[in-house]
Amino acid sequence: MMNNSDVAATAPAAAVIIENLRVRRGHEQVLDGLSLAVPRGRIVGLLGPSGSGKTTLMRSIVGVQVVQSGTIEVLGLPAGTRALRKRVSYVTQQASVYDDLTVRQNLKYFRRILGAPASDVDRVIERTDLGSVATRLAGSLSGGQRSRVSLAAALLGNPEVLVLDEPTVGLDPVLRVELWGLFRALADDGKTLLVSSHVMDEAKRCDRLLLMRDGALLADDTVRGVLEVTGTDDIEEAFLRLIERGEPDLRPRVETETPR
Amino acid sequence: MNLGRTFSTTGRVLTQIRHDPRTIGLLLVVPSLLIGLVAWIFTDTDVFADIGPAMIALFPFIVMFLVTSIATLRERRSGTLERFLSMPLGKGDFILGYALAFGLLAIVQTAIAVSFAVFVCGLEIDGSIWLLFAVAVADALLGTALGLLASAFARTEFQVVQFLPIFVFPQILLGGIFIPRDQLPEGLEVISDWLPLSYAIDALTAVADGSETTEWILARILAIGAWIVGSIVVGSITLRRRTA
After folding, report:
1. Considering only CB atoms, which chain B residues are within 8 Å of A86?
2. Are B8 and A112 in contact (CB under 8 A)?
3. Nearest by CB to A62, which of B11, B12, B86?
């Protein structure tokens, strides 16, 4: 667990600071006293099996989840504050776009809602490589293309924090590499990315990892840190060893690794 | 609230419907066909003259209720609602954007249904046809507003359809189609006095047979308007940004 002096020390560099977050959904305690910090300008991978609480954590950060207790600060403001709605963008697990609108019509509408400049539509189409399908109905696209439309919408208006729930699921390897390239470019621009995945081998592309299981953190560390602590070079194996060890690897403050 | 965002939402909803010919058909043509069917059933009797105005109230109301509630529910199911709630779109912008889009469609639909009932099916109107049109539009808007309200409480398309027997059927049964409302047992008459569809059916029937003054009919339109505004306000209050 982080103590208060640690939190104070990470504050200037952290985009998201969570303390003692507890969330209940129905009869289930999904998150039970979670504390973590997401540093600015980094790609943080949120990994864990499905049902471990990843989506609930992301929903809490973007402010659409009813939380039981605890505090969530995003860019120095309480999560879900009106002022954050333009600065934080969220891509849900299913592609949240209108199937009966074209790619461009979808993006034009979201742009108007965000009040972003008109040129943004072309910019995000280019960034997500959707130019060839821009005039097609979103419903006629493949799953991977639809999720890229959803991602493109999240890039409108240049948000500072991007919360992406399994953005690479179901994509072919080439596209997946391209998307991670895009994420890296965004981080190099100073954006903060929280990216969830249940594919462990994507972990190595992140700067830091949050490994989750049953609503608690197994690790909050750099990729290298997690591998060192567990004495392996495989994240999946590291995950298993952390469960075996019964003690989480929490080194939230340590920023030894420079972004690649 | 922000008018730009409200109108953008209206435009987006209309663009979506433009891509969906079947929904356009359901909205614009089906109510008229059903009115035509009723007229045909009662060809050799004078029943249609009595219940024709009620049919103008009934079919557009039900169609608008269904289409609106399912359209807004699809936002919830597709995840787009979740996306909005994390974006700077006001809940009022969202609900009002929908209400305006379907309101415009309701006006076109009503124009077709009223013209069809009067000019094709030969429904005789003693009062002003403009007044008939005004009541019918208010009635279709009422269907839209109640549909928005229902979708705020539903989680699935299946649940929306379940709201039909709860929200809509009692209004039909107590609206004075089967038996004039003043002949209902006392308890039921009081209940039917409170149901919004009763006002629409009363007013349309009164315009058709010219039995009431314009003021009396305008008062009914106002009452329907109050229900519309109330449903939209309650609908946007019950839409929660944070959910469990």
Report:
1. 87-88
2. yes
3. B86
For chain B, the maximum distance between any two Cα atoms, rounded to a whole number of angstroms, is 59
Query: What mean pLDDT comes out for the span B116-137?
Result: 91
What pairs with residue A194 in β-bridges?
A44, A163
Does residue A177 have a pLDDT over 80?
A: yes
Domain boundaries, chain A: 1-87+194-253
Q: Above 80 in pLDDT, residue A6?
A: no
CA-based nearest residue in chain A for residue B242: A64
How close, in Å, is residue A100 to chain B by CA atoms? 5
Average pLDDT (A152-180) is 90
* pTM of the predicted model as reported, rounded to 2 decimal places: 0.86
- Probe site for chain B from A91, A113, A165 (most B CB atoms < 10 A): A113
pLDDT tens figures, B130-144:
999 999 999 999 999
Distance of CA A163 to the CA centre of its chain: 4
Q: Answer whether A219's CB lies under 8 Å from A255's CB.
A: no
Q: Which long-range contacts (CB under 8 A, 24 or more apart) does A133-138 make?
A: A133/A103, A134/A102, A134/A103, A134/A104, A135/A102, A135/A103, A135/A104, A136/A102, A136/A103, A137/A99, A137/A100, A137/A101, A137/A102, A137/B19, A138/A95, A138/A97, A138/A98, A138/A99, A138/A100, A138/A101, A138/A102, A138/A103, A138/A106
pLDDT level of residue A2 (50, 70, 90 thresholds)? very low
Average pLDDT, chain B: 90
* Cβ neighbours of residue B235 closer than 8 Å, sequence gap 6 or more: B95, B145, B148, B149, B151, B152
Helix (H, G, I), strand (E, B) or coil at A195: strand
Per domain, the residue ranges of chain B are 3-238
Distances (CA, A) of A108 to A103, A112, A115, B104: 9, 6, 10, 22
Closest C-alpha to A63, from A86, A42, A46: A86
Q: Is B57 helix (H, G, I), strand (E, B) or coil?
A: helix
Contacts of A24 in chain B (CB under 8 A): 244
- If you average pLDDT over residues A129-139, what whole number do you get? 94
CATH architecture observed for domain A1-87+194-253: 3-Layer(aba) Sandwich (3.40)
- CB contact at 8 A, A168 and A4: no
